[in-house]
Design a protein that fits this description.
Elements (H helix, E strand, L loop, with lengths): L1 H23 L6 E4 L5 E3 L3 E7 L4 E6 L2 E7 L4 E4 L6 E11 L2 E12 L5 E12 L6 E7 L2 E6 L6 E5 L6 E6 L6 E7 L2 E6 L4 E6 L5 E6 L8 E4 L4 E4 L4 E5 L6 E6 L10 E7 L2 E6 L4 E5 L6 E6 L20 E7 L4 E6 L4 E9 L1
């Protein structure tokens, strides 16, 4: 009798386990199909998608951006217009009898116009410290601030524009590689590269008043702000939005042209409603739409390095263009590079 009951218990457990597995694997009943198996789109293109299998409704998302709800076997027909660009999961949330499962496919959304090409004219040249491995550059209250990098020689500086002399400086502990800076509400925010922490200083005294930790961003590269939001690059295609009070990451854009997803964006600057970004080890500065991530223009600064007095002393791989500062009161734009002996005031013009 005991053996008989034990056999019944084994069969019952097997039956219950099998039923549970079928329930958990309900998503295998469905397939998310995109017309022509298309995975790349531009703004203005239409997305056609459908979920096979019996269902009550489907809600479609591009990343966390809700697109549309369809009923029954209705096909999704969606024209891309105002979505954030980049690589996203197209998610179909499939509802049947009050339960739902999800199916996903990755798609890439590009801009529908190529970036405008810009060149430059040199207006003025100013001295720049040759020991300044420039990581961040910013005007605030008519003063020029700079962050320099390297382990053991990182610093935060107040610099005289006309002479290049350092008027105030603090050294960063040698365990940190300093990166970009931005200044908001009399506070300087400075990133570190791979240490996952940023520093906060009083703008007048350079007294360190706090720290903040990174969230999902991979590293610390560049910072900028529009007066309300702080923008942070991390070496990937993402520019993160930071809350100016908590410094928590509250979303991101991906930097995209009409054909490519761009990475290696370094020092950032807010210029008349756009984000300007150095591309590391390149002579180009991207002009980025902060709403959807579209790279709307590219400034070609090739030839600027030839204007330096210390070109022969520079490492061509690492001592590259980096550092953008915009004097919004006088509408003047300044650029320099890592260990360059010159800071340039430039005027941008369309090719």
């Amino acid at each position: 009798m005991k053996a008989y009951n034990f056999l019944i218990l084994i069969l019952l457990n097997f039956f219950l386990f099998s039923c549970g597995s079928d329930s958990e694997d309900a998503s295998t009943e469905y397939n998310l199909e995109i017309a022509e198996n298309k995975k790349e789109f531009q703004l203005g293109d239409q997305l056609q998608a459908q979920v096979t299998g019996e269902k009550d409704s489907v809600v479609y998302f591009l990343g966390d951006q809700r697109l549309k709800k369809t009923i029954g076997n209705e096909t999704l027909n969606h024209t891309f217009q105002n979505e954030k660009l980049g690589k996203w999961n197209l998610t179909a949330r499939i509802y049947q009898n009050r339960d739902f499962v999800e199916k996903q496919q990755e798609v890439t959304l590009y801009n529908n116009t190529a970036p405008v090409s810009y060149t430059y004219e040199i207006i003025n040249k100013y001295p720049h410290q040759e020991d300044a491995y420039t990581q961040g550059l910013e005007f605030y209250n008519d003063q020029l601030f700079e962050s320099t990098g390297h382990y053991g020689t990182s610093s935060l500086r107040l610099v005289d524009l006309e002479t290049g002399e350092v008027q105030r400086k603090i050294d960063i502990p040698s365990t940190f590689f300093a990166e970009g800076i931005t200044i908001l509400n009399d506070k300087i925010y400075q990133l570190t590269w791979r240490e996952g922490v940023g520093f906060i200083y009083d703008v007048d005294s350079f007294e360190k008043t706090g720290e903040f930790n990174y969230g999902q961003s991979e590293e610390g590269w560049g910072l900028a702000n529009d007066g309300n939001t702080i923008y942070k690059s991390d070496g990937t295609e993402k520019i993160w939005f930071l809350d100016p009070v908590t410094l928590s990451e509250e979303g991101f854009i991906q930097t995209v042209t009409n054909k490519t997803v761009a990475t290696q964006l370094n020092e950032l600057e807010w210029v008349e409603g756009k984000i300007y970004a150095n591309t590391y080890q390149k002579d180009g500065v991207a002009i980025i739409n902060p709403v959807n991530g579209a790279i709307e223009g590219v400034i070609n600064f090739s030839g600027l390095r030839d204007q330096l007095g210390n070109t022969q002393d520079l490492d061509p791989v690492n001592d590259v263009l980096n550092g953008i500062a915009y004097d919004k009161e006088n509408q003047k734009l300044y650029v320099t590079g890592k260990d360059w002996d010159t800071l340039f005031e430039v005027r941008i013009m369309e090719k």
